[in-house]
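If you are new to this repository, start here. Below is one unmodified record pulled from the training split, so you can see the exact layout before writing a loader.
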Amino acid sequence: MDQNLQLYLIVLFVAVVVISQTILISATGTRANRNRLIKKQLEAIAESGKPQQQSLLRKSYLDKLGPTERWLENNAFGEYLGEKLQLAGLEWKAYKVAIWLTIAIFFSMFSILFLTQSIKMAIATPAIILIGFTFFLHHKSETRLNLFEEQFVEALDVMKRALLVGYPFTEVMRTVSEEMPPPISVEFGKTFVELNYGVDIKVALANLAQRNPSVSVLAFNSAVVIQKETGGNLAETLDKISNVIRSRFRLMRKVRTLSAEGRMSAWVLMMVPFVLFLMLYISNPEYLAPLLDSERGNTVLTVTAILMTLGLFWIRKLLRIEV
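And here is the target side for that same chain:
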């Protein structure tokens, strides 16, 4: 019974922390569909750019590493993990993260196996660590991107003033990188470096949006590309984009306020079964023994977990409002 209870508590922990955060975290809509749309449009924007230019910063980063580090980093997994770390704003090397994760998994598995003598818990440990690390990256990425979007409105005002003074576009990017705080200063600084290296402006802006998948950045990219091809007053266009983004933020805050009751109801409905289970186990452990020890009880728990997961998806669908 003890091992079953421990395993069940682990499942409850994963269900509460991971599923709730990944499914209910967005009251104004998930970024998945939006990111797919951005990716398609970025490919169209950078269509005329040279493919080798798109990885210029990546090549510069790899050139600074030693032979062994470059061999560990220069592969599909290293590039994928490096992109996720970059989205999260973490200046960690991908191969070091992979090594530390591997060490943590093996150490945790042997520790849990030694302390509990439970093979099931030891086998479940890698999944829990990887899910937790994924959630950590997701949380850091969301926090960084939200801060970037808040700063982006101010950056548009800085760019508009610089353009009105008469600065060229490259100097405008440098001005933002010097006057604004991170993370937007870092991202515009990378774009400024790419432009100085001779990267096509479409590719440089596409790389900016790839590092910061946002509708606001995509609108900025489209305005700059169209202005470069057809002409026009870019400062006026940026002023209009800034006003639209501010209006969008006001609408997002209003939607979040109106959906607060639904999100709170979702948390209550999700936590009630877990709290009730713990209260019953503390007050009368023998009462739950048939549920944990019998085959029928395990079947009930499995069906309950499936139904609760379906309910979370349904609540997420009700709360998802695209802005």
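Two things worth knowing about this chain: The two ends are 48 Å apart (CA to CA). Residues 22-30, 45-54 have pLDDT under 50 and may be disordered.
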